[in-house]
Design goal:
The protein is an all-beta fold.
Length: about 130
């Protein structure tokens, strides 16, 4: 049975902020490992032109970053999969954090922003925060 759990926090940014947010993790070409697993396949039915990039494995939790166009504009998302259970969170801009209710949280950080305190870099723009 597949369960879906997730929590998301986004650092607030003014909607009229002139800043353009980029995430270099999406600059490379896709490889087979970048394909989202079946456990996460239905989570992004509302995204078009989406791309996913595998960020790595953290103690059995596999992490993907996803970028696409949603019904309300561009979105970036993090997908966490452990034991065939997917968690996800999405944001339109800024720092995105997704947790699984454990001691670790995962952040997608825009280019140019500092790494989160007490974090380990999992991939470009993706950090594990303990």
């Amino acid at each position: 049975m597949l369960a879906l759990v997730g929590c998301t926090e986004v650092s607030p940014e003014p909607t009229n902020s002139p800043r353009t947010y980029t995430y270099s993790i999406f600059d490379t070409g896709a490889e087979d490992i970048d394909t989202l697993p079946d456990a996460a396949g239905d989570l992004f039915a509302d995204l078009t032109q989406s791309m996913s990039r595998y960020a790595g494995d953290d103690n059995g939790t596999q992490v993907w970053a996803v970028h696409g166009i949603g019904t309300e504009g561009p979105k970036v998302c993090l997908v966490l999969v452990a034991h065939d259970v997917a968690s996800t969170g999405c944001a339109s801009r800024g720092v995105l954090e997704v947790g699984r209710g454990t001691s670790a949280a995962y952040q997608l950080v825009p280019d140019g922003d500092p790494a989160p305190d007490s974090s380990v870099k999992l991939a470009e723009n993706v950090y594990v925060v303990r």
